Amino acid sequence: MAGPLPTPVVTDDGEMYQSAAKIYPHEVDGRFQRLRKAAVFWLLGMFYLFPWLSWDGRQAVLFDLPARQFHVLGLTFWPQDFIYLSMLLMMAAFALFFFTALAGRLWCGYACPQTVWSETFLWIERWTEGSRNQRMKLDAAPMSWDKFRRKASKQFLWIAFAAWTGFTFVGFFTPVRELGASLLALEVGPWEGFWMLFYGAATYGNAGYLREQVCKYMCPYARFQGAMFDRNTLVISYDAARGEPRGARKRSADPRSLGLGDCIDCTVCVQVCPTGIDIRNGLQYECIACGACIDACDEVMDKMGYPRGLVRYSTQNAIDGKPSRVLRPRVLIYSAILLLLAGGFVVSLAARVPLAVDVLRDRNALYREAPTGCENAYTLKVMNKDRHPHRFEIAVESSVPLAISTPLGAHARGDDRDDDDSANGRRLRHFEVDAQALRVLPLTLTAAPGAARGRVEIVFVVTRESDHGVAYRQKSAFFAPP
């Protein structure tokens, strides 16, 4: 379904390939372009605004790598919550499969960062240099004060916007207000400075100069998208049966009497294309499904008094006059998997316990025999994921009575204590963990002489005192002489 590969040519200076000509996309209005503008404002608004929002006294969205905490609005994720990132990545993958199978490269046309920032840089270029014809004339004209002023203004705005983008990007990983204060005081750290310059330069180069070259030659999605298309995929199509043979004519002329189709060969669909392709040559891998050619062609059809839809979203089967099914098995399967993943993510997130426990056995000795009985040593790592400090209690469930002792030493804190749980024949260990902190506790379990033999399955239960619904159960084992 892709167009032919470019043919090598020998230029006047003996080079085998010509350098890519600059594309000057014409501005067009229409329902698809209004939708793209809304997407650009929405996505850029989230990117530039989120680091400045506050939530419960901290930055609303902050990926604190040194502390290994990832704050997203009211939630805090830890490395132990990697399952949620995995689910998000799987949802993103199946969403890409779903939308591609349903309607082609919607991601590229409306949500890809390359498209979003390129559109913004193009708006700046239009504002400083004028319309398509004005930009072409300006580039062809010799240097003058007006040309220098316009070019310099564009470069200044491009660089400023790219620098702000780099600053905002780093602000997701370093508190943005602290980063701003450090930048004003010229005290930015080397890593923050490097990533601000790197991301700013990448934005400036990709969105300002490379633009469609990234989509054509650097993006892998353009190469494997065809594997997810079929003849029932909605793609931007030119209705050749209606449009051909193309040719110019007066608005009042009857195209049928002239032996012509509805295409007047105005090439406006080519002029508005951000990648410079001619959609009338069929679907090509360079097409990013932005819909600019649809809006442009509909505008021309309105002026000519012809029906809209000469260029439209359609399936290859529909264009060829064959039965077409948009909702087909692969689309339904992708949507079902996507809904299951999204539902599982929401349910898992709602049931998420803000507590994590890791139990480590003493590797130096399987067990120790003491006058009081058989002892096993453990180290408990208790992580309080909540934004407030809490007190917890530890209990042990087992088939044999086990006593908990706590050789605290330097690990002791003022409010730590042990209590008897006489109803269950055990002792409870009470302790406090700071907000979003990890505490390490040494514990010793003791079985009375002869009460345990061999391996005994046990469960450590850590419960929040203020809310027994917040509990974590961790399996382990207790060893005694056979």
List keywords for this structure.
elongated; about 475 residues; 17 strands; 5-stranded antiparallel β-sheet; alpha+beta; 15 helices; disordered N terminus
Describe the structure.
There is one protein chain. With 482 residues, this protein is of the alpha+beta class. The chain is 39% helix and 22% strand. The protein contains 15 helices and 17 strands. The strands form five sheets. Strands 8, 9, 10, 12 and 15 form a five-stranded antiparallel β-sheet that branches. Helix 2 (82-103) runs antiparallel to helix 15, helix 4 crosses helix 8 and helix 6 packs across helix 7 (176-184). It is elongated. The N and C termini lie far apart (72 Å). Residues 1-7 and 421-427 have low confidence and may be disordered.
What's the total helix number?
15
Largest beta-sheet details: 5 strands, antiparallel
Q: Gyration radius, to the nearest Å?
A: 33 Å
How large is the share of residues in beta strands?
15-25%
- The SS-based structural class is alpha+beta
Q: Quote the average pLDDT.
A: 87
Low-confidence stretches: 1-7, 421-427
- Assembly state of the chains shown: single chain
First-last Cα distance? 72 Å
Helix coverage percent: 25-40%
What coarse outline follows from CA principal-axis ratios?
elongated
Number of strand elements: 17
